Amino acid sequence: MNASSCDVAIVGGGIIGLSCALYLREAGHDVIVVERNDPASGASRGNAGALAFAEILPLASPRIIRKAARWLFDPLGPLSLPPAYLPQIAPWLLRLWRASRPSRYQANIQAQATLIGLAEQEMLAMLARTGLDRHLHTEGVLEVYEGAGRFAAAQETARQRLAHGIESRPVQGAELAELQPGLSPRFTHGMLVPRWRNVDDPQALAVDIGRQAQALGARMLRREVRAIEPGTEGARLALDDGTSLAARRVVIAAGAWSHRLSRPLGDPIPLETERGYNTTLPPGALDLRRQITFSDHGFVISPLSCGIRVGGAVELAGLKRPPDYRRAQAMLDKAKAFLPALRTEGGEQWMGFRPSLPDSLPVIGRARRHPDIFYAFGHGHLGLTQSAATARLIRDLIGGHPPAIDPAPYRPERFF
To answer: Can you tell me which residues the record assigns to a coiled coil (predicted)?
Structure first.
């Protein structure tokens, strides 16, 4: 095979790009993944390990709009926005506000639920057929609340989930204490969501997916794509070392940097980044039975094979601003208060860029002017969860097969 050409070039070696490589290689396509860093070293490295098959409610929602005024300018709160970044992000925030209107919100829930349904089906099947289900854990997630009032306020989420067939079970008292020993008594109510799944190490899983693709013949090229030059058939990728790669088709799955490649192609997609923070503590830092979500505080704590990960929150601050690790420390301090037995020494802090679109749905589909170029980005904090579904849709589109679900809600045209 020619190292300077391929059938499909995938720009980006995170969980989305690697999953697309596996699916396309399974379908017989000659695939090269172009990634400037080690595979899965970006957002795929630092997430909470959740296969969030119950997470159907968009960030763009009436509840977030109600809370935004209180949260946005708290640098250590669940959702923050540095004032200096406001002029740049204002158009994106306006789109988010429009997507939060009741009619749009309900349509986006339906689109998210449909994609999540496909994600569950495809991920579990992919893990089974590749033998990677060894990474899978099935304990569900425990969402906890401080008092009956906060629990009652969360019932709308449970109702929306149930409308889409996602069951959850309220717990309190002795059962809550049994599900997670040592939880602070301030948390009096909980919701157990059995359909939720977790993996033991999200980066290890993504790397293993990439290895599976390579075992089937996919190639990895460590380069940065500087530009994509469309032609009459396919495109040429200009690389950072002065060389180029010719591809019959191109998939842009470069996470939070994807809009830098889509804009010159005629698609100025309104991509922003939800900067997420976490601290990974050594294994054994806590006897943690399953992932716990502290919904009102905007963070989770997850048991991983690499340690106990405390992270979450959303910082809307772009790609250039230096990390503010006080956010990671604030979540760690809360986790210690909520789970007093947690040992907080020896942790590793991290910040990563979650590619986010204002309606909380990814872009999956063809470039408007170039039918051989495809987009697969903008999954926010659901990249791991939606990776196999995205790969299935990309495989269907490239192969000319009827898509597994209606792709209309995810097409780039919705922004123009």
So the answer is: none
All residues at 6 or more sequence positions from 178 whose CB lies less than 8 Å from its CB, including other chains: none
Phi first, then psi, for residue 364 (nearest 5°) are -135, 110
Alpha carbons within 13 angstroms on the beta-carbon side of residue 136 total 18
Residues in the chain: 416
Residue 400: both structure tokens together: 């000319």
Q: How far apart are CA 29 and CA 42, in angstroms?
A: 26
What CA–CA distance (Å, rounded) separates 305 from 384? 17
Instruction: State both tokens at 375.
Output: 């987009």
Q: Which residues pair with 379 in a beta bridge?
A: 356
Minimum mean pLDDT range among 17-21, 23-27, 44-48, 234-238: 44-48
The 3-class SS string of 223-242 reads CCEEEEEECCCCEEEEECCC
Tokens 């794509």 -> residue: 225
Is the per-residue pLDDT at 272 higher than 90?
yes
Q: Which residues 6+ apart lie within 8 Å of 198 measured at CB?
A: 48, 49, 50, 51, 136, 137, 139, 141, 290, 291, 302, 303
**Token pair recorded at residue 320:** 């250039």
pLDDT tens across 46-57, in order?
A: 999 999 999 999
Tens digits of per-residue pLDDT, 339-361?
A: 999 999 999 999 999 999 999 99
To which H or E segment does residue 110 belong?
helix 102-130
37: region left, alpha or beta (phi > 0 left; psi from -120 to 50 alpha): beta
Read off the tokens for 270.
Answer: 């309104």
Residue 341: strand, helix, or coil: coil
Task: Specify which residues 345 forms β-bridges with.
Answer: none
Asked if 6 and 31 touch (Cβ cutoff 8 Å), the reply is: yes
* Interatomic CA distance for residues 92 and 324, integer angstroms: 22
**For residues 139 and 237, what is the distance between their CA atoms, to the nearest angstrom?**
44
